[in-house]
Design brief:
There is one protein chain. With 431 residues, this protein is of the alpha/beta class. The protein has a domain at 93-118 and 222-401: Rossmann fold (3-Layer(aba) Sandwich), CATH 3.40.50.1100. The chain has helices at 38-45, 48-55, 71-74, 97-102, 122-136, 148-157, 176-184, 196-209, 220-226, 228-236, 253-267, 287-293, 320-329, 339-351, 358-372, 394-401, 422-429, and strands at 6-10, 16-17, 32-36, 93-94, 107-112, 140-144, 164-170, 188-192, 213-214, 244-248, 276-282, 333-337, 381-386. α6 (148-157) runs parallel beside α7, α9 crosses α11 (253-267) and α14 crosses α15 (358-372). The radius of gyration is 21 Å and the shape is globular.
């Protein structure tokens, strides 16, 4: 029998476990990550860059996916026939002079993960997580969610005959658009009278007692799919590495995945240098920022308050320790922004023709602050990761533009009421 290419390894004590063992933490209590034998991988696969370039634009399943194009880097031990894919990835890297001017940079790119099938970056993680769950023979999968995770898990699990998705949602704390997605895909949707952190505690307890496969970002296999975001962005830049990646931080799984993927891409020779990474949080839920302020000597947790960036309303990030290592390794920084700052930044992107979610507005507002402080230079190449589509949060956008919030919008654009008269309309238009 061929020795597996991958195994699980503790991020703290380095204990090693079989990748097929269902576990989410080391015996020491810390998180695990999937480790690949990169030397064997290179020896077995040859020129990976040439292979990935050849698959670009392919319609073949699963390699037409912007995750499974990098199959050998994602889950090399997973047979291609076990992959569950919705054609995720291949998202646009927006780059226009107008966008760059809006954010006072000369070379800005927005990686729009809202163009995935369920309209968020979570699809990248779930194609890997659900595929591995199927490979292991799981019949039930579960997650706690602020909305987007549940939508992705439900959609991918729905493709597996005999697999039931179970979603733990904080009652009345997700948008109607987000709630509609797991319901439509047939997931058992539990609306629980608690916040996300409470849902996270409950889903871990239930999964530990019963034969249910947990698919939150503490699941190491989900991270493997999400790391394709950074790899794909570099390929779209002809394998040139930007000076900065800027990313919103909630449960901290995405920034962890980004760092892991870039590190492996560098080790495999796909990229020739390493970027810096900036993580951004909203002030109503910024425990990771507060931990950063202590040099990560203290792991801060908070009770997350109400925020328009509801998908990152998390007070106790599960992937805190992984994310802290990424920030340290990549000479990174962590910033925090207010509600007005995130919505004004979202409005700037929207006006440039790129519809982004409030959580993406957090990252863009962080970019504005880091530019103002001089941390990010005007001439540096910056990739900001947009985590979801603005249409999943349409109510938030309408409220901003119609002054239906307590915020003072920087870029309001309310509908104009006008009589049903051509001359009156022409006067309003100014022609």
């Amino acid at each position: 029998m061929t020795e597996p290419m991958s195994h699980l390894r503790c991020i703290t004590c380095d204990a090693r476990y079989d990748a097929r063992e269902i576990r989410y933490r080391c015996d020491c209590g810390d998180l695990l990550e999937v480790r690949h034998d990169l030397t064997r991988l290179t020896r077995a696969c040859g020129d990976l860059k040439e292979r990935f370039e050849r698959r670009l634009g392919s319609r073949a399943v699963p390699y037409g996916s912007g995750v499974w194009r990098y199959h050998e880097m994602i889950l090399p031990d997973l047979p291609a026939e076990d992959v569950i894919t919705c054609g995720e990835g291949n998202t646009t890297l927006y780059h226009t002079p107008l966008l760059s001017r809006q954010f006072d940079t000369e070379n800005l790119h927005l990686k729009h993960e809202g163009e995935n099938p369920t309209l968020s970056f979570k699809d990248r993680g779930m194609t890997a997580g659900v595929s591995w769950a199927r490979h292991l023979g799981a019949t039930h999968v579960a997650c706690a969610s602020t909305g987007d995770t549940s939508a992705a898990m439900a959609a991918y699990a729905a493709q597996v005959d005999g697999m039931q998705a179970v979603v733990f949602l904080p009652r009345n704390k997700v948008t109607a658009e987000q709630l509609s997605q797991p319901i439509a895909a047939g997931a058992m949707t539990l609306a629980i009278d608690t916040d996300f952190d409470g849902c996270m505690r409950l889903v871990q307890e239930v999964c530990s007692r019963h034969n249910i496969y947990l698919l939150n970002s503490m699941n190491s296999f989900r991270v493997e799919g999400q790391k394709a975001i950074g790899i794909e962005a570099c390929q779209q830049l002809q394998w040139r590495v930007p000076d900065w990646f800027v990313i919103p931080v909630g449960n901290a799984g995405n920034i962890s995945a980004l760092g892991k993927g870039l590190s492996e891409a560098h080790a495999l020779g796909l990229i020739g240098s390493m970027p810096r990474i900036a993580g951004v949080q909203v002030s109503a839920a910024d425990p990771f920022y507060r931990s950063y302020q202590t040099g990560f000597e203290e792991r801060v947790t908070v009770t997350a308050g109400p925020t328009l960036a509801s998908a990152i309303r998390i007070g106790d990030p599960v992937s805190h320790d992984k994310a802290a290592r990424v920030v340290d390794r990549y000479a990174g920084v962590v910033e925090t922004v207010t509600e007005e700052e995130l919505m004004d930044a979202k409005a700037r992107a929207d006006r440039s023709g790129v519809a982004v979610c409030p959580n993406s507005g957090v990252a863009l507002a962080g970019l504005r602050k880091l530019r103002a402080s001089g941390t990010i230079g005007a001439k540096e190449t910056v990739v900001v990761i947009m985590t979801a589509h603005g249409m999943k949060f349409s109510g938030v956008g309408v409220a901003y533009h119609t002054a239906a919030t307590e915020l003072t919008p920087e870029h309001p654009n309310p509908p104009i009421e006008v009589d049903a008269d051509a001359d009156a309309i022409a006067r309003v238009i100014g022609v």
